[in-house]
Amino acid sequence: MTLYDLAAGRTPTLVVRGELAPDTTLPATVELSIPSGCEVGWVGEVFPEDSSKDVVAPFDIRSVDGADVLVISVISSRVVQAELIPPQSWIENNGMTRTVSLTWTAPPALSALSLGFEAPDGYIATVEPADAATLPTSGGTLYRIGPLEVPDGETVTLSGTLTIPDVPPSEEAPSGEASTQPVPSASDDDSIAWVPWVGGALAVALLGMLLLARRQRTQPPR
After folding, report:
1. How far apart are CA 111 and CA 92, in angstroms?
2. Per-residue pLDDT for 102 more than 80?
């Protein structure tokens, strides 16, 4: 589970990736649990070694214990991915700061869970837990915990506060003319969050560098 597009004025995107066990027979059905109220942007089979083969997969949505579950049919790949716009409650905007909280409670036990979010270039991030791993990306810095083995019913949380950078002063405008320097808006209330769940032999590997800016899908770096 990885949260992207957290800059002011952007629509945050949550990416969840699940991987079937190598001995799973295809075709197969994959179930991923997500928070109620998420808007589904893209769901499909992905091929980490060749993203040009990625393909949209058919899916249904059903409700289980207060969460929405994506039931995905896969044919050729043992890796599935979903990209969502989550409920607004996952991100709190307060002036020049954005507070992000990714919380997941395991409905079944999982052998490998990762939570992460990308702080955009120029943003100052305060992260809890403080020992979260950091990874430079093309768009900023990825903060991540995991992969973790999570017993049934245990809750895992990754949170952070992002401080929006100051806008550099524009060049002095000619007398009588206002500066046209754009100022980032801190009023964007869109937010994202993912809670992955995989049934049966599915092992969740929530790795992702796949961005969906303004609901347009782009390919993750390899």
Report:
1. 30
2. yes
DSSP 200: T
Q: Can you tell me the distance from the alpha carbon of 120 to that of 197, in angstroms, rounded to the nearest whole number?
A: 28
Mode of pairing for the β-strands spanning 13-20 and 202-204: antiparallel
- Return the structure tokens found at 7: 């800059």
> What is the CATH topology of the domain spanning 2-166+186-216?
Immunoglobulin-like (2.60.40)
Q: Which two tokens stand for residue 149?
A: 């083995």
d(CA 94, CA 97): 5
User: Hey, what are 45's tokens?
Assistant: 């089979």
Q: 71-91, pLDDT tens digit by residue?
A: 999 999 999 999 999 777 788
With residue 183 as reference, give the H or E element that holds it: none
Residue 4: band (very low, low, confident or very high) from pLDDT cuts 50, 70, 90:
very high
What is the amino acid identity at position 216?
A: Q
The structure's pTM equals: 0.71
Checking if the pLDDT of 220 tops 50, the result is: no
Residue 89: DSSP 8-state = G
What is the spatial distance between Cα 203 and Cα 68, in angstroms, rounded to a whole number?
19
pLDDT of 211:
34
Please, are residues 96 and 163 in contact by the beta-carbon 8 Å criterion?
Answer: yes
Tokens of 25: 């027979």
Listed in sequence order, the residues at least 6 apart from 200 whose beta carbon sits closer than 8 Å to its beta carbon are none
Q: What is the pLDDT of residue 105?
A: 80
Per-domain residue ranges of the chain: 2-166+186-216
